[in-house]
Amino acid sequence: MEFPAAQILENTLYFLALINPASKILFLSAFDPPLDSRQIFELSWKSSLAALLMLGVFSLSGQVILRDIFHIEIYSLRISGGLILFFTGWMAVREGRFFQRQEKERLLADFTEISLIPLAAPLIAGPGTITLSLTLSAEFGQTHTLLIMSLALLINFVLMIAALPINRLLLRIHLAGPLIRITGLVVATVAIQMILTGVTEWLKITLQK
User: Fold this and answer.
1) Which of the residues 7, 9, 89, 191 could staple to 184 if both were Cys, CB 3.0 to 4.6 A apart?
2) What are the extents of the domains in the chain?
3) Spatial separation of the C-alpha atoms in residues 115 and 103, rounded to whole Å
4) Using CA atoms, how far apart are residues 203 and 192, in angstroms rounded to an integer?
5) H or E segment and range at residue 178
6) Above 70 in pLDDT, residue 105?
7) Max alpha carbon distance in the chain (Å)?
8) What is the overall mean pLDDT for the chain?
């Protein structure tokens, strides 16, 4: 099944908004002593690959696991994922950060561990992106979903490996704080839309019974 380029671009940007590259740039720029380019590249490719595998599993078999094993409907996942995502965006708007302060102070003893938790999950493959991978797969098919996931993760990966120069530029022009808060507002707005869509689907199914 073919999809127009506009549809692929729209869904890729939507997925990228939920991945939220600004939070990864902030995370990678927050270590003290600072990471070097090699360390950032290692964290970036490991976390991106792990997130792609996790999201791919949910896209391919998530609906079967949720509905047949746990008896969870997609609208419930939309609502719960939207609530968690909303508080992530709300923290960014209020406090100018996307993660708890103690995460910034984690030691770099094990890069693989850090690339998996918290980078791959929940910062990349979080409730919002997991929910979207399931819903896009149900609406557009698995091939389309895997394509837009790969494109969004590739863009995020490029931004992650450029975290240090991007952060230096933002600090120089005093845009780091405002950008984080604006991105948080976008994330919170997307979360509200997810919740409203989930509630609408639940009401539609309930009223039809």
Assistant:
1) 89
2) 38-94+106-208
3) 13
4) 16
5) helix 176-208
6) no
7) 59
8) 84
